[in-house]
Amino acid sequence: MIRWQDAYKVVEAMFPLYVALILGYGSVKWWKIFTPEQCGAINRLVCFFTLPIFTFEFTAHVDPFLWNLPFIGADVISKVIIVIVLAFWAKCSPKGSYCWSITSFSLCTLTNSLVVGVPLMKAMYGPMAVDLVVQSSVVQAIIWLTILLFVLEFRRTGLGVTSNASNGDQGKDLEEDVVNSSDRPSFWSLMKVVWLKLAMNPNSYAVYIGIIWALIANRWHLEMPSILEGSILIMSKAGTGTAMFSMGVFMAMQEKTIACGARLTVFGMVLRFIAGPAAMAIGAIAAGLHGDVLRVAIIQAALPQSITSFIFAKEYGLHAEVLSTA
C-alpha cells in the first residue's frame, strides 16, 4: 500500500514539470514574450540540443550487464503486437491511415518512464522497480524512439519530394496516403535521403553513443572524466524542463487548451490506458513474468505520454496537438 509520503514523492517529482509547462504557456498566451518564429526556435533547441544530450546522459549511466532480459522481452513483444495491429489496420481497413498509425503507436507504447515512472515505481515497489523502469526507458530510446524518428523522417522526406509535384491543396490531400503515391522517387533513393538526414540529427545516435559508453565503462570499470561529465550535465539537466516549456508554448499557440477536441482526447486515453497496458499484459505473460515484475511491467505501460514523442511530433508536423493533450 502506498503511504502519503510516497504519494507526495510522486507529486514532488511531477510538480516542477508543470511549473515549466505553465511558464511556457504564459510566456505566449498571457505575457506575449515570444513570436511564432521564436516558438519554433525553442522547439528546435529542445529537439537538437537539450533532448539528445539528456538521452545520452541517462543512457551512459546504466549497467546493461544487469538487465532483466525477460522484462525487456515482454516489452518488445507488446510493442511488436501493437505494430502488427496498426500495420494491418492501415493496410486493410478503408479508414486505415499510415500517419494515424504512427501517432497511435506513440500513444500506445511511448511512456514518460523516467520523470513519472521512477518516483511512482519507487514508492510502490522499491529500487527493483526503479531499475526495471530505467531499463524500459533505455530500450525505448534505443529501439522505439529511433524507429519513430526514422518513420517520421521517411514521411517528411516523401512529403517534401511529392509536394514539389503538387500545389498546396494537393499537398494537404497527399499527407495521409503519400506512401501509396505513384510519382515518388524509388524506395532506395528515398532511403538514401532519409539516412543522410538522420545522420545529421543528434537524436538518432545520442542513445547509441550512450549505450556503447555504458558497455565499455561497466566492462572495464571506467569513469567519465569530470570535465566531460560536467559539460554534459549542464545541458542534460535542462532537457526535461525545456521540453515541458516547449509543450506549454505549443499549447498556448492553439485556439483551445485541449487542442485536439474531446473525441480525439478520448481516443488517446483509450490507447494510452487500455490498449498499451493490455498489449504489455500479453507480452509479460508470454515472457513468463510473475509477481511484482509482472505488476511493474503493466503499470509502467500505463504511465503518461512520453515528452520526447511530442517534441518529435511538433518538429515533424504530425498530430502534435493530440500528443500534447495526452
Task: Describe the protein.
- The chain is globular, with a radius of gyration of 20 Å.
- The chain starts with a helix and ends with a helix.
- It has a single domain, classed as Na+/H+ antiporter like fold.
- The longest helix is centred in the middle third of the chain and has 37 residues.
- The chain is mostly helical.
- About 4% of the residues have low confidence.
Quaternary state reads single chain
The end-to-end span amounts to 27 Å
Structural class: mainly alpha
CATH topology: Na+/H+ antiporter like fold
Silhouette: globular
CATH architecture: Up-down Bundle
Averaged pLDDT? 86
Low-pLDDT residue intervals, each spanning 5 or more residues:
166-179
Largest sheet: none
Transmembrane segments: 15-34, 41-59, 65-90, 97-120, 132-152, 205-222, 234-252, 264-287
Subcellular location: Membrane
Family: Belongs to the auxin efflux carrier (TC 2.A.69.1) family.
Protein name: Auxin efflux carrier component
